[in-house]
Specification:
The complex is a heterodimer of chains A (92) and B (162).
Chain A: H1 9-14, H2 20-32, E1 36-41, E2 44-49, H3 51-59, H4 62-91
Antiparallel strand pairs in A: 1-2
Chain B: E1 6-8, E2 15-22, H1 26-34, H2 36-39, E3 49-55, E4 62-68, E5 74-85, E6 89-96, E7 106-115, E8 119-127, H3 131-139, H4 142-161
Antiparallel strand pairs in B: 1-2, 2-8, 3-4, 4-5, 5-6, 6-7, 7-8
Classes of the chains: A alpha+beta (92), B alpha+beta (162).
Chain lengths: 92, 162
């Protein structure tokens, strides 16, 4: 949401069916991770997204996931072979 | 649709979960984890081939696997097998032999859950000695990432020497 426009924390809360307290907690966590920053402009505080940080968070598991995806893809193929063999044995 | 591989590693907690569903009955999925000739066909992953030094797959047994990259680098792992309960559970330790010191052992529990329509849900929980052990293992992408990071280092050195 804030990728498209900067919003105040209350502006964010208006878009979710969650209490302001819950939203404020989420915003606090995202701020601690550096995914969003809060900037004071006059009387209002605005949330800005840090897309680069978002990538870092998404990326740290990427290589690890790639290995397991590759393994499980091979395992899928093996299971197909094993199942067709079981079916053949049954029909004999 | 392809079954999604989910990796859950919460910040600051020394464990991670790998979950995946398979379109096959759990007896078969379990066998693929527990029989050498089947394990060899998939555990390598990416471009790696795999060798089994030994695999005594039973409660009280042990294993040692070697993964080889296309460039000939070898990465070895070993552990003891705490519990094999067919077809639902395998519990074992895991240690990567490439670390500078011994003792960074994790405990892995693989659970095979039967789903309707002959499907199976696999959950692997790995509990590490510390958060930094876990993060190190994930960041290194285990064996593949280690190669990647060596290549990145090589490239960095090349740039610095220019």
């Amino acid at each position: 949401m804030i990728a498209h426009q900067t919003l105040t924390p209350n502006g964010v809360a208006d878009n979710f069916d969650l209490s302001r307290q819950a939203i404020s907690k989420h915003i606090k966590i995202l701020t601690e991770c550096g995914i969003i920053t809060i900037t004071q402009q006059g009387r209002e505080r605005y949330c800005f997204i840090q897309p680069q940080k978002m990538d870092e968070v998404a990326d740290w598991l990427a290589d690890f996931r790639k290995i397991w995806e590759s393994r499980f893809d091979k395992l899928d193929n093996l299971l197909i072979k094993m199942q067709s063999k079981t079916d053949n044995d049954k029909s004999k | 649709m392809k079954n999604q591989t989910k990796i859950i590693a919460e910040k600051g907690i020394q464990e991670l979960f790998i979950t995946r569903e398979f379109n096959a009955p759990r007896e078969l999925v379990f066998r693929a984890f527990n029989e050498s000739e089947l394990l060899l066909q998939w555990l390598g992953g990416c471009d790696m081939t795999m060798k089994i030094d030994h695999f005594d797959s039973r409660t009280g047994g042990s294993y040692r696997f070697i993964h080889c990259t296309a460039t000939g680098q070898e990465f070895s792992f070993n552990g003891v097998i705490h519990d094999v309960t067919a077809p639902e559970r395998i519990i074992r330790t895991f240690e990567f032999e490439g670390l500078p010191e011994r003792g960074h052992v994790s405990l892995e529990t693989a659970t095979f859950e039967a789903l309707p329509d002959n499907r199976t849900k696999l959950t692997i929980q790995s509990v590490f000695k510390s958060v930094s052990d876990r993060d190190g293992m994930v960041a290194a992408g285990m064996e593949h990432g280690v190669t990647d990071s060596h290549q990145r280092l090589d490239e960095l050195f090349e740039r610095l020497l220019k």
